[in-house]
Amino acid sequence: MSPDHPPGLDLDRLRGLLDRERPGLVTGPLSGRLIEGGRSNLTYAVSDGSAHWVVRRPPLGHVLATAHDMRREHRVISALHPTNVPVPRPVLLCEDEEVIGSPFYVMEFVEGTPYRTAEQLAPLGPERTRAAVLNLADTLVDLHAVDPAEVGLADFGRPEGFLDRQLRRWAKQLDASRNRDLAGIDELHSTLGRQLPRSPAPTVVHGDYRLDNALIGGEHDEIRAVLDWEMSTLGDPLTDLGLLVMYSSPLGMPDSPVSTTAQAPGHPAPAELIERYAARSGRDVSAVAWYTAFAWFKLAVILEGIHYRYTLGQTVGRGFDRIGDLVPVFIEHGLTTLQEG
Q1: CA–CA distance, 89 with 92 (Å, rounded to integer)
Q2: What is the Cα–Cα distance from 213 to 2, expressed in whole angstroms?
Q3: Bridge partners of residue 106, in order along the sequence
């Protein structure tokens, strides 16, 4: 892949736009590369040889505008940047598809590491791993402490009926990729529906809050930036906590193609993360089992969708052949979490 021509990013057109809109920002020829690891929207690292930026755009090809809304992502990081929530500094939003073929935005590059697996965390050692994950929980408290109205996000979502709408949305997603029997998934869905908790006051919700959506660095392994805001909205903050707890729980499946970081030495147990969030936020977390079970359900649906596309020959790559085996594991974790909660 040529650094002058990363797929989906015309660096000459980008340079022309930045020179017009941010004169003097760029001081040399731009080079760029696609950053691997994103689930949907494409992320590029761009540099002029001295300064560094990041460009985000929707995937190549036709996509639903609502699914990959650059304006939403740019709006939320712009609103949060002056707060205690660490996000990259926004530079520019471009909604003119003539420039690179789709809307996109530019933000400053932040140094840091996204830790995706227990193996990647292991070299940090137990103490640093523990500190990094607790910092992640503290940053979630900071996010949920932001008053949406004060930062211009009062209309960023529809918090009324949020949980019911989320449950219906993911059930609909499941139906769209249902081509095999999945024992327990209907029971999990119906039990979640019967036990729907009463939501606390709405906050800005990240929607996919986990360790590898954060950049960690510095002397104290602090959270340098929280990334991937494409699913953010106004809603029930405890959905973010449930996801964090789920991603911090051991899968109990050796050689899984999808990894949690829970097995890393020093990684705080879910109970400690829940306690820390509750103590620092002052929120009632007594229904956290529901939110964690909902996270297991949501991920089971996402994984089943990947498996479905794999069976149709639409998804190729290492590990996709084993994704289907994970779905029953996630369903079982969801049911067990509800029973034990």
Answers
A1: 10
A2: 27
A3: 55, 92
Of 6, 28, 32, 10, give the one whose Cα is nearest residue 19.
28
CA angle at 45 for the pair 43 and 46, rounded to the nearest 5°? 125
Is the Cα torsion angle 18, 23, 25, 26 positive or negative in sign?
positive
Q: Is the pTM of this model over 0.90?
A: yes
What is the phi/psi pair of residue 300, to 5°?
-60, -40
Q: What is the CA radius of gyration of the chain?
A: 20
One-letter amino acid for residue 98 of the chain: E
**What tens digit of pLDDT does each residue of 25-69 get?**
999 999 999 987 655 678 999 999 999 999 999 887 655 554 458
CA distance 315 to 309: 6
| CB of 102 closer than 8 Å to CB of 58 | yes
CA atoms of 320 and 307, how far apart (whole Å)? 7
Which residues fall within 8 angstroms of residue 304, CB to CB, at 6 or more apart?
A: 174, 177, 178, 182, 324, 327
Helix (H, G, I), strand (E, B) or coil at 255: coil
**Residue tagged 């690292």 (tokens):** 45
Helix %, strand %, coil % for the chain, to 5?
45, 10, 45
pLDDT of residue 35: 87
Q: Which two tokens stand for residue 225?
A: 């930036």
* Cβ-count burial 81-101 (b if 16+ within 10 Å, e if not): bebebbbbebbbbbeeeebbe
At 132, phi and psi to the nearest 5?
-65, -45
* Closest to 238 in 3D by CA, of 188, 284, 196: 284
Taking the C-alpha atoms of residue 168 and residue 189, their distance in angstroms, rounded to an integer, is: 9
Tokens of 283: 């929120």
β-bridge mates for residue 215, sequence order: 225
